[in-house]
Each structure stands twice: as C-alpha cells, then as structure tokens.
Amino acid sequence: MLLEICANSIQSAINAQKAGAQRIELCENLAQGGTTPSFGLISEARKHLTIKINVLIRPRPGDFLYSDLEFEIIKKDIEKCKELGVDGVVCGILLSNGDIDIVRIKELVELAKPMSFTFHRAFDFANDPFKALEDVISTGADRILTSGQQPTAIQGVHLIWDFVKIANGRIIIMPGSGINEENIEYFIETGAKEFHMSAATQVESKMTFRKLGMSLGNPEEDYKINESNIDKIKSVLAILNTTNSL
C-alpha cells in the first residue's frame, strides 16, 4: 500500500520523506484547494527528495472549466515538470455541463508521458460519478483522486467502495480528503491500495517582531504556517504497514 502526502511547501515535502511516505503531491495554496507550485519549489523538492514527486497542475482557484489560454498554461506547466524530472502530474478538466473533458485530458495524458497522470478532485464535481469514472478511464489516466463526491472521503466512503469495485483494476482509485490515523482503516476496507492525506498541522511563525494592526486578511493566520506533520504520517503508515504484513 502507498501513502501520498499533499505537500504545500518544501518543509512539508521533506517531512513527508522523513516520515516514510512513498510519494508527495506538491502544490501551493491548499486553503484554496491547491494550485500549481512555483518552478523553484518543484526544482528544490526534486533536489532534496528521493521519493516520487507528483505535481498539481491547476492554474487558478475556482472551477475546473478552463479557457484556451488557461489550457495553454496547463500544457506548458506539464512540459516544465517533465524537464524538472518529476514523476507525475495531477490535473483535471470539466466541460460546462459537468462532464469530463475527455478530449483535453487525453491530450494532457499523452503530453505528460512518461510521467504518470492523476485526475484530481475535479472528478468529485462531475455530474454523474459512474459516467465520469468510465470517461476518465477512457483517457488513459493512471489514477483518480476522489473523496467520493463529498467534502471529505469519510462522507463519501460508500461511493469509494463502488468506484474501486467498478474500476476493477482498470485505474487506481485513491481516496483523499480528511484521511487520518483514526479513519484510514475504513479506506483500507474499500480495497484501495493508494491513499492521499495532507497530515497538516499549524506551526507557529518564528517571527519575533509582529506589526500591530497589520494583516493580510486574517490576523489569526498571519503568523501560522501549515506543514505536513511527521508523527501524523508515521501513525497512518504504521497502520498501512501492519495491514501489508497480514
């Protein structure tokens, strides 16, 4: 079984590797659902990590309906990821009616090769989950990251059961969103073999000077940093490793 950590910074990425995770999904702006990380971050992560790195390709927050210009940005970001030596990309595109944009995703899957391609949680916004499953499979994508079309994976666990069964090995179904040591066993029972979590914890800033009356929007968050937590990752891995040995 494999644990992927959603890493929003170089420190989160390093923590994921130290804890024993096998892969990261590198991104930025997790509070907005994640966006494409900077090339500097990707390059430094590749330099310091030996585990696999998948990179989120999402040019902006919001919906998953992209203009022609945004699609060009997506393609250029994928090409740059290939140059930087990452292992996979994570992307998703919908049509205005909520269907999977099969044509564009097929193009991106081909462009990404030999990197792997994960269709991300745009899948959870599709109009028909079972049609969407077959549509993503038809694109040649390697896996789907899903919370079972619910805000958290534990809320959508019954649909995740269905996805794993229907996919029947044709594509990897990777549960994600709110997975932790307290609920990971529910997802193991679905038959899934890969799992996605952020293991995020707020870390207090080391700034000693703090400008009174100045804020970037939320004073309570200005001096807090979200980082993937080594102990949380180890706790989940211990359960996965125990299951593997049975």
Chain-wise SSE layout:
Elements: E1 2-7, H1 10-19, E2 23-26, H2 39-48, E3 52-56, H3 68-84, E4 88-91, H4 102-112, E5 116-119, H5 129-139, E6 143-146, H6 157-167, E7 172-175, H7 184-188, E8 194-197, E9 200-204, E10 224-228, H8 230-245
Parallel strand pairs: 1-2, 1-8, 2-3, 3-4, 4-5, 5-6, 6-7
Antiparallel strand pairs: 9-10
What does this structure look like?
There is one protein chain. By secondary structure, the chain is of the alpha/beta class. The chain has helices spanning about 10-20, 40-50, 70-85, 100-110, 130-140, 155-165, 185-190, 230-245; strands at about 1-5, 25, 50-55, 90, 115-120, 145, 170-175, 195, 200-205, 225-230. It contains 8 helices and 10 strands. Helix 2 (about 40-50) links the parallel strand 2 (about 25) and strand 3 (about 50-55). Helix 1 (about 10-20) packs parallel to helix 8, helix 3 (about 70-85) runs parallel beside helix 4 (about 100-110) and helix 4 (about 100-110) packs parallel to helix 5 (about 130-140). It is globular and about 55 Å long. The chain starts with a strand and ends with a helix. The mean pLDDT is about 95.
Key terms:
TIM Barrel; globular; alpha/beta; 8 helices; 246 residues; eight-stranded parallel β-sheet; 37% helix
How many domains? Answer: 1
Poorly predicted tracts of residues? none
Biggest sheet layout: 8 strands, parallel
Using the CA coordinates, give the radius of gyration: 18 Å
- Report the mean per-residue pLDDT as an integer: 96
CATH architecture descriptor name? Alpha-Beta Barrel
Q: CATH class, anyone?
A: Alpha Beta
Order of helices and strands: EHEHEHEHEHEHEHEEEH
Q: What's the tally of helices?
A: 8
Helix proportion range: 25-40%
Number of strands: 10
Percentage of residues in DSSP E strands? 15-25%
CATH homologous superfamily heading: Copper homeostasis (CutC) domain
Category by helix and strand content: alpha/beta
Give the overall shape: globular
